[in-house]
Design a protein that fits this description.
Shape of chain A: globular
GO molecular function (chain B): branched-chain amino acid transmembrane transporter activity
Keywords (chain B): Cell membrane, Membrane, Transmembrane, Transmembrane helix
Largest interface: A-B, 52 and 45 residues
Order of helices and strands of chain A: HHHHEEHHHHHHHH
Number of strands of chain B: 2
Strand order of the largest sheet of chain A: 1-2
Radius of gyration of chain A: 20 Å
CATH topology of chain A: ABC transporter involved in vitamin B12 uptake, BtuC
Helix content of chain A: over 70%
Distance between the termini of chain A: 42 Å
InterPro entries (chain B): ABC_transp_permease, LivM-like
Number of domains of chain B: 1
Pfam family, one (chain B): BPD_transp_2
Oligomer: heterodimer
Number of helices of chain B: 15
Main location (chain B): membrane
Amino acid sequence: MIVTLGTIEEALVYSFVLSFLAVGITLLYKTTKVPNFAHASFTTAGAYAVYSISTILNLNPYIGLPAAFLISTLMAVILFFVVLEPLRKRKASIQMLMIATLAYDILMYGVLNVYADTIQTSFKIPSRTVTLMRFDFTIAGFRGVFIVSLILLLSSVIILYFILNRTYIGISLRASMENQALAESIGINTRVTLLISWIIAGGLAGLGGGILAIWTQIDPSTGMSLVASMFCASIVGGLEEIYGAILGGFLLGLVELIGTEVLARTVGSWVTPYRPIIPLLILFITLIFCPTGLVSPARKAIRKLRGRG
Amino acid sequence: MLELFIVFIIDLLAFFLIYLILNTGLNIELGYTGIPNFGTVFWFSAGGFAAGALASRLGAWLLNIDTSGIDFIRDNMIIVMKINNILEKSPLQALTLLILIIIIAGGIGAMLGAVMSIPTVRLRSDYLAITFLAFGEILNVIGTAYTPLVGGPPGIAVPDVWAWSGKLRFTVSTLTILIIAIIFFAYAEYLVRTPLGRSLRVVRDNEVAAEAYGKDIARFRLISMIIGSTLMSVAGALYVLYSQAVNPSFFRFHWTFLPWLMILLGGVGNNIGVLLGTFIYNTIYKLIVFYKFELGGILPFDVVWLNYILLGALIIIILIYRPQGLLPEKPPRIRLKVKERKE
């Protein structure tokens, strides 16, 4: 067998993490119209929240996940209120907003490194290239992180679906995504809806980061190294389709890990170090040949078929 | 003390000039044409890798050094020593090598710029920025994985094309970079005033209007990308030649984020502003590095990270309070030649 069960499990956990991140990016892109480069540091912050709670307080790593959600939400809300709102008031262009998120990411990268150094000196625990893998449990041969992240992703999607379709705030969020001016004219406070989208996106990124800390090694640059993959997942999903982002996350995670594994076994192990190129190639091909992502053309095709039938 | 001061100034100048070339290239793309190039590190490292991989190979070929049985990566130190020994005595050959490397690095940069201009035509600016940002890292991956290029993560030494100037090596190398920077800067200033420069700005400001006047947008973006990329790659090559070593870890922070910061600080679309921004940033940065050790003992973390925090905060403040930079873009003064009619 070319691919082992372990690789498939790894690839699936990676896909879950990418889905968490890509959903946030897509949501923010739809509401704020800005590709949020600061997602990288939201992820790292979540990972470090879980890591510090687990090692400093000696708790089960999964207890840290809500804290990861909160800390990344906090970072997202600060970005929204302190940086993006003043810029939007000054009618800044999308380019300006993008640079601002990138700058915020750099700032937070510095903060996270300071944090990592500080916990290392004051609590005498390692803080770079660390993992919580050994605290994880196994059920029927599956790693705990696989089961927990699967449940988390499913419940997040269901909750998100419920919020977006069944609650007043979610419906007004969707309204302001479609047409902000129109939404404002019927009395929706778009600032509140924007804020909600930042809270959801930041929190999901924190959860993704927390899972990363339990699943694999983390480092202050973990988020940055995932930037290409998460944006690729979001774009493959169509950058306009929230559930498409999950599809993109799965596609990318599976192709990146299983594809590399298959190539390494068939072509030779020299392929493995080139793994980061795979998301870039997928991104490039998608953007050149199918810039609206894979979901909306598929939807159009289905509609066409239905129309004929 | 005076000697220390001179070393400080020369090092500051060299970095300032390398950044100036890079930023001028970015300004042609971002400032004149409106291409949000979040991947300048891509072209910078392309130039750096070209210089790193070719300097010893070209040098050995140029100086007729017997390379049979020599592996340029494994025996890197031996071959670099041999080349340096010859270059110490012959400035002419050293200069030939320098010029050859710069031309090749520029050419590679131009080619990569032409390739990457394909997405600039098809994509909106936000998608484009993501593409550039993602692609910035691709060369580092290749450089790390493919060791024949620059020897993988440990990197390799690069022959010193200024070996002949002996003790004045850093002064002479800085002067060389100064000359190249002046040429490029003057060209960029000239470019603004030409019809090409005006067309680029029309493409940036209003694509529809540009098309209505019969301007081929794709062609102008291509030209802008080629010119800008050439400059960036030359900057990368000069950086590697100046530091006499190369390794595949050109950080996005240093070679994409900082150039953006400097341009935003000085003023997007204004070459003088770019010059000013580059100078201010580099001076402050070198002063921080210079006084870093006095701060180092007090804090429980590495002072380097404060840089990231300060610069991130600085760019956000600039964006909010002075988005046009210190010197905003001004339309270039053009002297219209009116032919006097002889009556």
